[in-house]
Design goal:
With about 675 residues, the chain is mainly α. About 60% of the residues lie in helices and about 0% in strands. A two-stranded antiparallel ribbon has the order 1-2. β1 and β2 form a beta hairpin. Bound molecules: protoporphyrin IX containing FE and copper (II) ion.
């Protein structure tokens, strides 16, 4: 692979700008460097990187919590953790992995790559995007600060009432869970609005719906599910907050409340939530496998439609989490049938991935290994999922380690594995250098071994009757061997994550030591639009908004069929990629106010938990920043876009330019 030193983009000297707004307070910072460039950025690529970095930090925290759990359970009568701390550990582990790792990691990749895949320069609302990231971080800080501010939540990641009421949970732990997730919920909602608006409105000229890459499609489906799911959780959380803080009785059984109300509300959110997590992963696997099979995705349209089908069917199965709650045979049967039905569109995906590999010219790069690892492990998780859907059988499996095994096969096996693959696949595009493939192969095989050794035996433990959420167990139940194997597996898994981190540091140092800050724009011979930009892309993504004629636009620019129908290469990427035009498209300027607004959210959060006076401070900060945000010009006065706007450059292109200049969000 030739390292091409892409010509550094032309730098336009910073214009000398008059102060804008009363007292100049609302003057937008011009191009900044160092920490300011991160604190004020509204560039989707930088925001994507920040989401990615923080998700990995939270993954390490959640992973350490899991290792402590596994160490405690390695042998009977474990004494490492007390029952109370153990409850806090699995609650925080589950909550962290779902809301602070898998969800934001999907958003990290969406932020960086959706605009590139659809041929846009940024998302629809850049400052709202920044606000989304800082508010997500505020939620993560609130949640994790519970460890040092009086005790973490200890009632499991789905926090069932009435256990979550003050009677049974008198400390602030549950308030941290509620307020922390209310805050991340707001971040998720504004991000969903941003992504949906971007994908619907900002596709490049010619990119009709069946030319949109599958990653972007599945991101759209997932974000729509989120738009409807999060409000259900938010409503339930406000009810719980009112019960705990203001003596309401939404879940107070002694006052006539129905304890199942929380369970229904939580799982009406909770089951779509699992698809919100897996959809970007489905999309990633569908983008990676064709590239390394040198074949178009088998059944592209069916793949997209099956994703949309899951997006609808996913709303009709929530009570399969409540088969043992006494709903009765009619409800159980209805939700059992609904849950089995959803296996059909999911199965279609697995067959299409195999169909794509069938007779392909397969290159088992690390990214490809992780993609194949994803759908094989996900398939195993899917099969145990079917056994759960059989409601009579589920009475045996419910609340045992069989369930713990199932959701780790679908969540870690399904989502986390291919997210690692995405790092290896897109690293050169993001950072201008590749991750080391040899270390990558170690990373993959150790992760596969550790993963299956950790969660495989948990199926057996569950069928042997070991309940989940027990902080220890007595000898003599026959659970010793498989618990020890599972614990050893979790350490191998942790070691494989360490190899990934070593690979990141080593590859970066090696590249920078060689003065390498950019690399081949298309190292994998890619298919989708992001591969026609430089690696990394310029701040404005494309010199010219591309004209799209095909699905897999990048591939079709390089290959064509000859008169005999054989695929032949017709151009090198250098000849068909996005090239400097010498005219720098103007991008909106950085801004402080999204960060300040998120700070306001942080104060409001702690105010709800500790003292309403803090809410007033937070409210003031939020109010001022929203006003400033509204007043500050989206572009500093005196600076106009230099790219000519032509009416016939396609609906989304024109809309984008005008929108970018005019909008104040
Ligand atoms: C990094 C390796 C991981 C290990 C070793 C691990 C291990 C465990 C164990 C042993 C439990 C059961 C605790 C109990 O019931 O007492 C658990 C629970 C859980 N894990 Fe993991 N896990 C890992 C990664 C993940 C990932 C990536 C996710 C993704 C979302 C995840 C989500 C969950 C959830 C939701 C629970 C349920 C917590 C609860 O009962 O409230 N875990 N994990
Ligand atoms: Cu479910």
């Amino acid at each position: 692979m030739a390292i091409v030193e892409a010509p550094r983009p032309l730098v336009i000297p910073e214009p000398v700008l008059p102060a804008s707004g009363p007292m100049g307070v609302f003057k937008r910072p011009t191009k900044t460097t160092g920490w300011r460039s991160w604190a004020t950025t509204i560039d989707h690529k930088k925001i994507g990187k920040m989401y990615g970095f923080m998700s990995i930090v939270f993954f390490i925290i959640g992973g350490c919590e899991a290792l402590l759990i596994r160490t405690q359970l390695a042998t009977p009568n474990g004494t490492l953790l007390s029952a109370q701390v153990y409850n806090e550990m699995f609650t925080m582990h589950g909550t962290t992995m779902i809301f602070l790792v898998v969800m934001p990691l999907g958003v990290a990749f969406m932020n960086y790559f959706v605009p590139l895949q659809i041929g846009a320069r940024d998302v629809a609302f850049p400052r709202l995007n920044a606000f989304g990231f800082w508010t997500f971080l505020a939620g993560g800080i609130i949640l994790n600060s519970s460890w040092i501010l009086g005790g973490a939540p200890d009632n499991g990641w789905y926090n069932y009432a009435p256990n979550s009421l003050v009677t049974f949970a008198p400390t602030h732990g549950i308030d941290f869970w509620t307020v922390g997730l209310l805050t991340t919920g707001i971040a998720s909602l504004v991000t969903a609005i941003n992504m949906i608006t971007t994908i619907i409105n900002m596709r490049a000229p010619g990119m009709t719906w069946f030319k949109v890459p599958v990653f972007t499609w599945m991101s759209l489906v997932g974000q729509f599910m989120l738009l409807f799911a999060i409000p259900v959780l938010t409503a339930a959380q406000f009810m719980l907050l009112f019960d705990r803080r203001f003596g309401a009785n939404y879940f107070e059984v002694s006052q006539g409340a129905d304890p199942l109300l929380w369970q229904h509300l939580f799982w009406i959110f909770g089951h779509p939530e699992v698809y919100i997590m897996i959809m970007p992963a489905f999309g990633l696997t569908s983008d990676i496998i064709p590239v390394f099979s040198r074949k178009p995705l088998f059944g592209y349209k069916v793949m997209v439609i099956s994703g949309i089908a899951i997006g609808f069917l996913g709303w009709g199965v929530w009570a399969h989490h409540m088969f043992t709650s006494g709903m009765g045979p009619v409800s159980n049967a209805a939700f059992a049938v609904g849950s089995m039905t959803i296996a059909i569109p999911t199965g279609v995906k697995i067959f299409n991935w195999m169909g794509t590999m069938w007779r392909g010219q397969i290159r088992f790069t690390t990214a490809m290994l992780f993609a194949v690892g994803m759908f094989t492990m996900f398939m195993l998780g899917g099969v145990s999922g079917i056994t759960h859907a059989i409601s009579p059988a589920d009475t045996q499996q419910h609340d045992t380690y069989y369930v713990v095994a199932h959701f780790h096969y679908v969540l870690f096996g399904g989502a986390a594995l291919v997210f690692f693959g995405a790092f290896y696949y897109w690293w050169p595009k993001i950072f201008g250098h590749m991750l080391n493939e040899n270390l990558g192969k170690w990373n993959f095989w150790l992760m596969m071994a550790g993963f299956n050794l950790t969660f495989g035996p948990q199926h057996i433990l569950g069928l042997q009757g070991m309940p989940r959420r027990v902080y220890t167990y007595l000898p003599g139940y026959g659970w010793e061997l498989w618990n020890m194997v599972s614990t050893i597996g979790s350490y191998i898994l942790a070691f494989s994550v360490l190899i990934f981190i070593i690979n990141v540091v080593y590859s970066r140092r090696k590249a920078h030591a060689a003065g390498q800050y950019t690399c081949d724009p298309d190292p994998w011979d890619g298919r989708t639009l992001e591969w026609i930009t430089t690696s990394p892309p310029p701040e404005f993504d494309f010199w010219e908004i591309p004209d799209v004629r095909d699905l897999d636009e990048a591939w079709h620019r390089k290959y064509a069929e000859d008169e005999n129908g054989r695929v032949v290469r017709v151009a090198k990427i250098e000849d068909v990629m996005d090239k400097p035009t010498g005219v720098i498209p103007h991008m909106p300027s950085p801004s402080y106010w999204p960060l300040v607004a998120a700070f306001g959210m942080l104060f409001i959060g702690y105010g709800i938990i500790f003292s309403l006076a803090l809410c007033a401070v937070g409210g003031f900060l939020l109010f001022v920043s929203l006003v400033a945000w509204g007043i500050e010009p989206s572009t500093e006065p005196g600076v106009h876009p230099v790219e000519p706007l032509t009416p016939d450059s396609g609906e989304s292109g024109v809309a984008h330019e005008i929108h970018e200049v005019g909008a104040n969000v």
